[in-house]
Amino acid sequence: MKPLVPVDLISLILLLGSGFSVTFLATGLLARLNEKLGIVGVDVHKKERPKLPEMCGLAITIGLIFSAALAAVLFPAEQRKLLAFAMCVGVAALIGVVDDLRPLSSKVKPLLTVLAAAPIVLLGTYAPYLAIPFLGTARLTIVYPLLILATIPVLANAINMMNPFNGAMSGTCGILSLSMIVYLLVLGRGDEAILPAALLGSLLAFHMYNKYPARVFSGDTGDLSVGAAIGALTIMTRLEIPMMIAMIPHITNAFYLLSSVGGLRERRQIINRPTRLLESGKLEAADDGKAPVTLSRIILAEGPLHENEIVNIMIVLTVASSLLGFLTLFLMPR
Amino acid sequence: MLKRMASLLGLIVVAWLTILFGLFAIFRLIFEFTMPSQSGFTPIMIGILRILFGAGVGIAWLVIWQKLASIYLWRNLKTSAKAR
Q: Please, which residues 184-243 of chain A have a Cβ atom closer than 8 Å to chain B?
């Protein structure tokens, strides 16, 4: 007899709920703890320049690892994949914690994030085939593991670079994880959507604290672990090309930034800022030729906007690119 | 706001089309490229050429994205400066 409610749907809701509740509780606790410990950062895009607890993105990591452990109990056959995912997210978060407490050099940080990709390669939780739109599937036995070692650091750092404003990371990455769930459901692979559901739950909970006006910052800890999670899930669910397209705003932002500052630079080394705060509280694009080109500067090129308006545009762009990713699904060979 | 959104969405669509075209070029044209003569050294040469041309397509993507973004940014910044 067919169950009344699909088991996939129950697991999906359970994992979404576990990601949400654990992250919500952990964010509140971390906010209080980090404030007490003096781990705070200045919100430079507000006239009052409030100090907010930093590194609270660790709550997302906690939510994801808890959800992966819960999924391991529910789906014992998938334990190796879940372990690889948890290790990938954990290692990325650890690098983020070190970077938040004692900033790493611009070249060491991306190199260290390669370590986050290692569990996926070492535990062999990937299929070395790449589905190409219009053409078919390419077998990349030797190249694919190398691509994993490159992709996860690139995505983790791209997400990290896309978080200049309140709610930008949690909002855009929430859309990315929702897209991943939709892609998998459309492909009839709902059972693979449990971890993207946990990620969506965690990001929704964190967004409640991080949305404009933010009460907490995610820090590099949150950004790197979310980026690593999205990278790991993209590889494990074999959604490489649709997710690459969904991430166009993140990837182009990272490339604009890197190409305009002439390679890898630590945030604190970039003296010329891409945007400046006006008396009205709006942000304006800098007309300085030496300032880095970023997505936010491009958004502001047509005139000043409030911080929340910029984030809304970033979210709309991510929705648009996710829809293009969805369209690409239908260009894939069946 | 609508004009701004339309321009930004245009940049996203161009990036999407370059990815689709680039993937097609890499996997249909470059990876299937062969040479009539198959001496001992030829497969290595072909492998190196494939990697170089594939990387070339990747760099072309990035250069197109950068040029478009740069044109959009500076054209609008100049217009905003004139309006002030």
A: 241
Whether residue B27 lies inside any domain: the answer is: yes
Residues of B in contact with A293 (CB under 8 A): 66, 69-70, 73
- A174/A180 Cα distance (integer angstroms): 10
Q: What pLDDT, on the 0 to 100 scale, is given for residue A119? A: 96
Q: Could you count the other beta carbons within 10 Å of the beta carbon of residue A143?
A: 14
Q: Name the helix (H) or strand (E) containing A178.
A: helix A168-186
Residue among A324, A329, A330, A331 with most chain B CBs within 10 A, to mutate: A324
Residue A306 to chain B, least CA–CA distance (Å): 13
Percent pLDDT > 90 in chain A is: 74
Mean pLDDT, rounded, of chain A: 92
* For range A241-250, the mean pLDDT: 96
Residue A83 main-chain phi, psi, to 5 deg:
-65, -45
The number of distinct structural domains making up chain A is: 1
Host domain of residue B18: 11-83
Task: Decide if A250 touches B, using CB distance below 8 A.
Answer: no
Task: Determine the residue among A287, A302, A306, A315 to mutate to test chain B binding: the one whose Cβ has the most chain B Cβ atoms within 10 Å.
Answer: A302
**Percent of chain B whose predicted confidence (pLDDT) is above 70:** 92
Query: Has residue B6 been placed in a domain?
Result: no
Averaged pLDDT of chain B: 84
Task: Give the N- to C-terminal CA distance of chain B in Å, as an integer.
Answer: 18
Beta-carbon separation of A134 and B13 below 8 A? no
CB contact under 8 A, B73 and A293: yes
User: Which residue among A259, A301, A316 places its CB closest to the CB of B73?
Assistant: A301
Structural domain contains residue B30 = yes
The count of domains in chain B is: 1
Convert A70-93 to b/e letters by CB count within 10 Å (16 or more is b): bbbeeeeebeebbbbbbbbbbbbb
Q: Is there a domain that residue B2 lies in?
A: no
Contacts of A194 (CB under 8 A, 6+ apart): A11, A12, A15, A71, A74, A75
Contact B16 A287 (CB under 8 A): no
